[in-house]
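Table S5 (text form). Sequence records supplied for joint modeling of the two-component complex.
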Amino acid sequence: MPEHITMAGLGAGLIGSAYPMIVAHTGFQGLPCPLRTLTGVPCPFCGLTTATVALSHGQWATAAATSPLAYLVAGLVAVTTPVLAARTAGLARPPRPWSEAARQRTRYVASVVVALSWVFQLHRYGFL
Amino acid sequence: MADPYNPGPYDPGPYNAVPTGSLYANWGQRVLSYLIDIGPIIVLEAVFVRILPIYVIVLLASIAWTAYNRWYKAGTTGQSLGKKVLNLRLVSEETGQPIGTLMAFVRDICHIADAIICFVGYLFPLWDAKRQTLADKIVRTVVIPA
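The corresponding structure-token record, covering 274 residues in total, follows.
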């Protein structure tokens, strides 16, 4: 499972670093958040694109002010990339399935993180 | 006596008996399958969006194709065109059987739940034990290798 998140995070980082160039050449502004478009209320993941672009360009303060969640994903990618590389090279053991207790703990932590991110976004858009 | 033609509920076996992900289609396979199903539709609509009469025809044809491919075929056989190409099947989590046309339609409607949170619901199969999107969880379906 961390491998998939690592790959997704690396992909997001690569796209994020090329994003301003993509926007300049195509005018594509990305997909707007449907919840915010329809209701005006941001979702917990709003700002991730902007924050990823900012992070990939070294704009740390902008990223933190837009979506701290991006820091968490970037941290996860930074920690798991060496593991992924070691496994690919055969230097580390292949991944083992998580126990149900570990999954339960992860679900709980993820729920708290998402809830905190939503509070942050609601505050950023002036709802709190 | 056990009915040899009815495999019964889809049972992935005891937990940790096999690597969890191998029982279900992975995210990449599901994305490719989805792109095969809706990619041509998006391209055609983008090409003809400024030519209104043709766009209306393309739109109606897209709806008809989606109804046949993603709702009727995927609902009755478990395989839309994309899933057939990728050798996947959409089945009920409880029975292991195709979910029927109506539920396949409801499942596509439930994809609203995946989209509404900045499309993050579509990423759920990356970390979910049963590789389900939120729509899959709502209608209790899984996508498995055929």
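Note: The interface with chain A takes residues 15-16, 19-20, 27, 112, 115-120, 123, 126-127, 129 of chain B (CB under 8 Å).
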